[in-house]
From TrEMBL:
It is a multi-pass membrane protein. Keywords: Membrane, Transmembrane, Transmembrane helix. This is Uncharacterized protein. It is found in: Membrane. Belongs to the TMEM192 family. The keyword Glycoprotein does not apply. It comes from Cynara cardunculus var. scolymus (Globe artichoke). GO terms for cellular component: late endosome; lysosomal membrane.
Length: 79
């Protein structure tokens, strides 16, 4: 009987130990998930900024081309 009680006590302590480990892993996992969400939000913001900058750059290129065309036209008409 004492041996059974001893084994039961050991089994219960092992269960408690594993539950504690599991809680720790879950807490760590939750922290990683929160950090991933935060990093995804930052990445999304950077992507949005990059897209805006690319559109602005393309608009500048088009504006420059238009100005070059106008300048060429003006130069050719003044000759």
């Amino acid at each position: 009987m004492n041996q059974l009680q001893s084994e039961l006590k050991l089994a219960r302590s092992l269960v408690v130990e594993k539950e504690t480990e599991t809680r720790g892993v879950r807490m760590t996992n939750n922290q990683y998930m929160e950090e991933n969400e935060r990093l995804r939000a930052i990445l999304g913001e950077w992507s949005t900024r990059a897209a805006k900058l690319e559109r602005a750059l393309e608009a500048e290129r088009m504006s420059k081309l238009e100005l070059q065309k106008k300048l060429s036209t003006l130069k050719s008409t003044h000759r």
